[in-house]
Structures are given as C-alpha cells and as structure tokens.
Design brief:
Elements: E1 2-10, H1 15-23, E2 28-33, E3 40-46, H2 49-59, E4 66-73, H3 83-87
Antiparallel strand pairs: 1-3, 1-4, 2-3
C-alpha cells in the first residue's frame, strides 16, 4: 500500500467544491481542510506507484480551483493503529 499526502492551495471560495471533487476520486481516502500555508490535504492510499501517478496527474491536476500542490509520499507509518491491515481489506 502506497500512502501519499497532497497539500493543496485553492482559490478563495472554491475550497468546498475542490474538497467534494477530491473525495469523490477512488484512491483518495480523506480530505482535510487545514489552517496554515495550504487549504486542503488529500490523503491517498493506492496499491502501486502507477496508480499514484495516474491519480495525481490525470485526476487531481484537472480539478478547477487548485492553484498549487505538493505531494509527499509516505515511507513508513508510526501509529497506534494498524492502518495497513485496515486499508488492505478487499485488496487480496
């Protein structure tokens, strides 16, 4: 499972529309509105690097209202929760 975090700056007044469009995309598990330098953070969980590339370049970049993005790929998770087990249901 590949996890990535996409930090997004969005046009004023478009945050809700962009968040709704993002969460409708398969592979995006959550979208958070945040305070600070960015407006939204999309959490992606996909099976392959190719799926990640497709999602970011063919889907996220096409959403109107996004002005800037930065994608961070997770290497290792440190958590009290077994996220790998939770998100692998149905991937066998």
């Amino acid at each position: 499972m590949i996890t990535a975090f996409v930090l997004l700056s969005v046009d004023r007044g478009k945050i809700n529309d962009v968040a709704d469009a993002l969460v409708a995309i398969d592979g995006i598990s959550e979208v958070h509105s945040v305070a600070g330098r960015y407006d939204l953070v999309a959490i992606i969980r996909v099976a392959t690097n190719e799926a990640l590339a497709d999602l970011v370049t063919d889907h996220i970049r096409q959403i109107e209202g996004i002005t800037q993005s930065e994608t961070l790929i997770g290497f290792r998770v440190y958590s009290k929760h077994d996220l790998e087990r939770l998100f692998s249901v149905g991937l066998e």
